[in-house]
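Below is one record:
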Amino acid sequence: MKLNRAMITLIISLLCLGLMAGLFYAWAVSVMPGITKLNDLQFLSAMQSMNRAILNPLFLIPFIGTVFLLPYATWQQASQPAFYYLLAASVLYIAGVFGVTITGNVPLNESLDKLNLVNATAEALAEQRKLFEKPWVNLHNIRTICGVLAFACGLIGLYQAAANNCK
């Protein structure tokens, strides 16, 4: 197999996509089940803290980079059999992961971030948790499923691109 520019771009984009799919999967199967057992103050405090901590370059570069790299890698395979799998991966990631995060999870995170937990009453904490937890988890499950499906499509596309590149 020749590692030309198109293959290198595809590999890097799938590495970023895999990191995001893995992050969302791990969060769905370990972090959220663990913190749902906490009381309202602990849960909301943990979510505020994690939502603040994740906004760093180690998350943002692959999260945003995939939005640009994956479609570019897809375009580079436009005349190849891998194109349709990579197109599916791009659509799933951009709409189902990035789009859901930006239009769903982020507004919930920003709303939660405005809550002063120290001065909130037990009733206010319970109400905020009720408004936040279920919608956030549902949206997170959507982006997790879309991320994993996008990664699977991307791997099939990589396999096809590699096979085609070996001819």
